[in-house]
């Protein structure tokens, strides 16, 4: 796959390049001619060259509006430099003497007399820059394609090989124990179908042969059991693989818009509510997070009642419809409505996937199952952000939302075909009393309020909102914005397992939480000092590192400091409450960032976000150390 | 049939459903010969040319009767008496003063039973002609040539930094008083100083052109950065004098109307072109004559595209040249050399 895409990309790029160069040259010619005609028109009014006011500014504006132009300059007919845009070389000799393949020189005449010479010089590296950007796009697509292929492969090997082999193994074990009454069946046996059918036929014949003599055969000496009536086909269902792929698709489809969502909101007509633009743009993100958080408990209960298959189908369907309607939204108000709908679908899918894994795992392998869930979630986010920004740049925002919707429908279809009906109900519902119980635990609340919430504020306020507007403002291309966001996901995916291992072994989990918080504060502060793409990417990556170190440790620390509560109401409930509190950060992040940006600009906003984060870390450290002795005294274990 | 044609046909069918029957085509109506009275204040302007040209282009057969007051309001009551006895199909009025007289707002009876379409009224609401721009409810409608003052001042500001703005006007013209009040409000909010130069009146209602030098001297002494010439009949008819003296003192002139720039060498202005205003007024007249619409139900409108007009000869006199980029959209009058 990699070789094929590399070869195809290479051929396409070569073709593109050979067509790009002459087009660029033609464009330069047309532009130069239009400038010449304009200046000749002005001079024809009878103005003299030195009466042309703001000529450099005019030339600057032309250069700034066209990335293919390096500079435009005017010289006298004998080659003295008159005026030039920014970037014009100092010496006129350099302008005129050197032959230049990307220079267009035109004479500016009045009544047939040459008054000046116009020189428009194109950026020879423009084609290279374009090629570079396209190469990066292709690289992104190939890399993400490989990740998606990996996800597919996981599913495929699980259903086509792992499941039938497990069945064969079970059958072999049964036969070893003298149990001949099972059959393999031909359902879901993949490439082993014919083998399974042959074995079944052979067993049937043996059973019929024996049954002619004895109806129910059990040989006391050999311990073999046979019957004409089989005990039924064996099947092995791979629960994690079956849910992981559609879950990945839904997350991926929604994440397609993550990297450009604020710009899409900005492009819609907004009602005049007297609210600043920055806050208006942040509203749909916050609302999405809010509806998502509010819908989760209801979605969970409903999913338990209706069964996972139907719940996932409905959830993915609602998400897809919401995304389709988002693509068609004309006003901010309708967008808010459709995003809320999408959030409900998203909540159903999220809680159903989580519930499905809990249903189908035992206490021992649940952690592994959840790890698969988390990696599918972040993988989907990462792939979606990168691919979505490329799609948006090529096809536009609305078309990308339509693609998102189609993927959502595909996920629903997939579930229809591959997911087994299962009834859940294993999740214990949250109760008000549980919350009151944990509210009394200062250390738990400190971790939730001062570590978990600031982390989520950084995620939604900084990464999903402020930094996107910042990158756009400094002139970053959409596909580069998407790639910049990937830095966060990549840091998490690469570092989180490593950090999780360290956290498990470490005695001082609070150290990791504090370190993660400090790193996140520093990360958000980086773009304050330097407004370049590189520093922004560094900030995003550092935020990912901070969260990879801090977030798993937060969970571990929260469980650790609430050991008594965990014993009373179970770790699932404690974790559920922790997650619920954490989502407050998701909701408030964009609104907070939007308000800060409206008042103090991007610089002020990141200073504020970083400051809030830092303040929370300091308070958390103080609270934890103040309550440390009490915790030890009260809990001798 | 190509899809485009089919779409056009569909559109026409739909359009036909929504149009009142008698107005779809002009031919049957053109059998009627309409009589329109044009009541003017200072001779035929581009606005009347636009008005008459547009009606002719629409295929209307119109007999025009012109009455010009020659800037003497005292002649207006006579015109109104004449109109009342002749009973034309429609009256076209030029400017605030004539329109107010025809509507009976100047102390003598006006005309309330013949449709009136006005043009070149800067502020129809402020002048008391209509309660709102949505419609008069009576026999009057028309087109304003008003360009928002903020846009005008922004245009001026793109060439001249204005800290002190002079305005010369005739306080006996209602629209000029309104304009100066608006300028004063704007001066407070935009942070510039407004220096008023009302034309001294010898007798009530009459102005003396000789007072102009006595007005400009103090304005120059006040070091105004620019002089605003409102849509004021006195200022427009004496624009040549005013502009010459202002430019001699190095004060650029900004005109609210286009004639002073085109004919009297005023420096610049952001204007509704009179010709276009006249064309728009002709459209209103057509709606009244052919479609039998009630004048009071038609909105009073203003153009939404303005022309930035710059007099290049004045620019050279003042030494203030427009930026090169401005030539892309500005209309240049009086180029420095004739051959283009």
Fold and architecture overview:
The complex is a heterodimer of chains A (637) and B (340). Chain A is an alpha+beta fold and 637 residues long. Helices cover 74% and strands 6% of the residues of chain A. Chain A folds into four domains: 22-124, PAS domain (Beta-Lactamase); 157-227, no CATH class; 241-427, Up-down Bundle (Growth Hormone, Chain: A), CATH 1.20.1250.20; 429-637, Growth Hormone, Chain: A, CATH 1.20.1250. In chain A, a hairpin with a 2-residue loop joins β3 and β4. The relative contact order of chain A is 0.08. The N and C termini of chain B lie far apart (47 Å). Chain B is built from 13 helices and 13 strands. In chain B, α8 (211-221) runs parallel beside α10. Chain B has two domains: 25-145 and 274-297, Response regulator (Rossmann fold, 3-Layer(aba) Sandwich), CATH 3.40.50.2300; 149-271 and 306-333, Response regulator (Rossmann fold, 3-Layer(aba) Sandwich), CATH 3.40.50.2300. In chain B, 39% of the residues lie in helices and 19% in strands. The chains are: A alpha+beta (637), B alpha/beta (340).
Which features does this protein show?
heterodimer; A: about 625 residues; alpha+beta; Beta-Lactamase; Growth Hormone, Chain: A; 4 domains; four-stranded antiparallel beta sheet; about 5% strand; globular; disordered C terminus; B: about 350 residues; alpha/beta; Rossmann fold; 2 domains; six-stranded parallel beta sheet; 13 helices; about 40% helix
Largest interface: A-B, 17 and 15 residues
* Number of discrete domains of chain B: 2
Oligomer: heterodimer
Q: So how many helices of chain A? A: 19
CATH superfamily of the largest domain in chain A: MFS general substrate transporter like domains
DSSP strand tally of chain B: 13
Question: Spans of chain A with pLDDT under 50 lasting ≥5 residues?
Answer: 632-637
Summarize the structure.
Chain A is an alpha+beta fold. Helix content of chain A is about 75%, strand content about 5%.
């Amino acid at each position: 796959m990699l070789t094929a895409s590399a070869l195809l990309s290479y051929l396409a790029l070569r073709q593109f390049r050979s067509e790009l160069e002459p087009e660029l040259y033609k464009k330069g010619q047309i532009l130069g001619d239009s400038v010449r005609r304009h200046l000749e028109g002005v001079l024809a009014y009878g103005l003299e060259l030195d009466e042309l006011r703001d000529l450099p500014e005019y030339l600057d504006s032309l250069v700034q509006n066209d990335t293919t132009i390096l500079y435009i300059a005017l010289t006298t007919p004998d080659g003295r430099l008159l005026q030039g845009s920014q970037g014009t070389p100092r010496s006129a000799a350099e302008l005129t003497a050197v032959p230049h393949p990307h220079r267009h020189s035109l004479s500016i005449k009045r009544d047939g007399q040459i008054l000046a010479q116009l020189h428009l010089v194109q950026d020879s590296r423009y084609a290279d820059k374009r090629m570079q950007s396209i190469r990066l796009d292709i690289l992104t697509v190939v890399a993400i394609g490989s990740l998606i292929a990996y996800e597919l492969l996981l599913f495929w090997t699980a259903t086509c090989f792992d499941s039938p082999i497990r069945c064969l193994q079970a059958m072999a074990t049964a036969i070893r124990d003298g149990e001949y009454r099972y059959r393999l069946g031909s359902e879901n046996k993949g490439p082993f179908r014919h083998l399974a059918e042959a074995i079944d036929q052979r067993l049937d014949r043996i059973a019929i042969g024996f049954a002619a003599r004895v109806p129910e055969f059990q040989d006391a000496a050999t311990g073999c059991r046979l019957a004409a009536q089989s005990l039924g086909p064996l099947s092995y269902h791979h629960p994690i693989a079956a849910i992981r792929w559609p879950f990945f698709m839904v997350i991926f489809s929604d994440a397609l818009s993550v990297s450009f969502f604020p710009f899409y909101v900005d492009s819609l007509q907004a009602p005049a509510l007297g609210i600043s633009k920055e806050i208006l743009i942040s509203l749909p993100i916050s609302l999405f997070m809010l509806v998502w958080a509010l819908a989760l408990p209801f979605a969970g209960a409903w999913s338990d009642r209706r069964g996972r298959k139907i719940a996932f189908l409905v959830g993915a369907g609602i998400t897809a419809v919401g995304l389709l309607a988002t693509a068609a939204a004309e006003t901010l108000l309708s967008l808010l409505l459709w995003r809320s709908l999408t959030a409900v679908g998203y909540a159903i899918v999220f809680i159903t996937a989580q519930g499905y894994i809990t249903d189908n795992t035992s206490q021992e392998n649940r952690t592994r199952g959840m790890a698969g869930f988390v990696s599918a979630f972040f993988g989907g986010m990462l792939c979606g952000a990168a691919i979505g920004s490329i799609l948006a740049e090529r096809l536009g925002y609305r078309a990308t939302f339509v693609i998102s919707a189609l993927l959502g429908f595909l996920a629903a279809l997939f579930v229809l075909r591959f997911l087994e009906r299962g009834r859940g109900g294993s999740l214990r519902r949250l109760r008000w009393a549980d919350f009151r119980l944990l509210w009394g635990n200062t250390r738990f609340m400190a971790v939730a309020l001062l570590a978990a919430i600031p982390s989520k504020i950084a995620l939604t306020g900084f990464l999903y909102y402020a930094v996107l507007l910042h990158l756009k403002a400094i002139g970053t291309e959409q596909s580069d914005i998407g790639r910049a966001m990937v830095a966060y996901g990549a840091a998490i995916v690469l570092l989180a397992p490593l950090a999780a291992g360290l956290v498990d072994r470490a005695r001082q989990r609070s150290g990791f939480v504090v370190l993660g918080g400090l790193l996140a504060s520093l990360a958000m502060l980086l773009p304050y000092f330097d407004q370049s793409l590189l520093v922004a990417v560094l900030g995003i990556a550092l935020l990912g590192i901070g969260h990879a170190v801090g977030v798993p440790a937060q969970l571990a620390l929260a469980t650790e400091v609430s050991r008594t509560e965990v014993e009373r109401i179970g770790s699932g409930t404690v974790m559920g409450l922790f997650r619920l509190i954490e989502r407050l950060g998701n909701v408030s992040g964009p609104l907070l960032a939007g308000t800060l940006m409206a008042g103090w600009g991007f610089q002020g906003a990141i200073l504020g976000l970083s400051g809030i984060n830092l303040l929370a870390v300091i308070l958390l450290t103080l609270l934890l150390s103040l309550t440390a002795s009490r915790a030890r005294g009260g809990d001798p274990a | 049939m190509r899809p485009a044609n089919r779409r056009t046909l569909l559109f026409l069918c739909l359009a036909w459903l929504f149009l009142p029957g008698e107005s779809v085509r002009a031919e049957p109506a053109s059998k009627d010969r309409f009589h329109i009275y044009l009541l003017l204040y200072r001779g035929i302007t581009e606005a009347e040319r636009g008005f008459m040209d547009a009606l002719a282009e629409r295929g209307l057969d119109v007999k025009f009767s012109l009455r010009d007051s020659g800037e003497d309001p005292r002649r207006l009551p006579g015109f109104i008496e004449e109109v009342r006895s002749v009973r034309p199909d429609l009256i076209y009025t030029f400017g605030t003063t004539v329109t107010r007289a025809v509507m009976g707002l100047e102390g003598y009876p006006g005309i309330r039973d013949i449709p009136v379409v006005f043009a070149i009224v800067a502020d129809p609401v402020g002048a008391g002609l209509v309660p709102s721009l949505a419609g008069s409810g009576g026999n009057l409608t028309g087109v304003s040539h008003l360009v928002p003052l903020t846009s005008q001042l922004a245009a001026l500001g793109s060439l001249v930094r204005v800290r002190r703005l002079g305005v010369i006007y005739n306080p006996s013209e209602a629209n000029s008083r309104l304009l100066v009040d608006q300028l004063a409000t704007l001066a407070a909010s935009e942070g510039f100083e407004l220096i008023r130069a009302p034309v001294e009146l010898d007798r009530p209602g009459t102005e003396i052109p000789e007072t102009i030098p006595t007005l400009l001297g103090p304005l120059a002494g006040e070091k105004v950065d620019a002089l605003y010439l409102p849509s004021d009949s006195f200022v427009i008819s004496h624009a040549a004098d005013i502009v010459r003296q202002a430019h001699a003192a190095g004060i650029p002139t900004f005109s609210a109307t286009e004639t002073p720039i085109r004919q009297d060498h005023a420096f610049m202005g952001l204007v509704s072109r009179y010709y276009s205003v006249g064309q728009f007024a002709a459209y209103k007249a057509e709606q009244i004559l052919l479609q039998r619409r009630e004048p009071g139900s038609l909105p009073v409108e203003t153009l939404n595209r303005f022309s930035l007009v710059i007099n290049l000869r004045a620019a050279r006199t003042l030494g203030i040249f427009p930026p090169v980029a401005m030539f892309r959209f500005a209309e240049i009058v009086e180029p420095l050399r004739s051959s283009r």
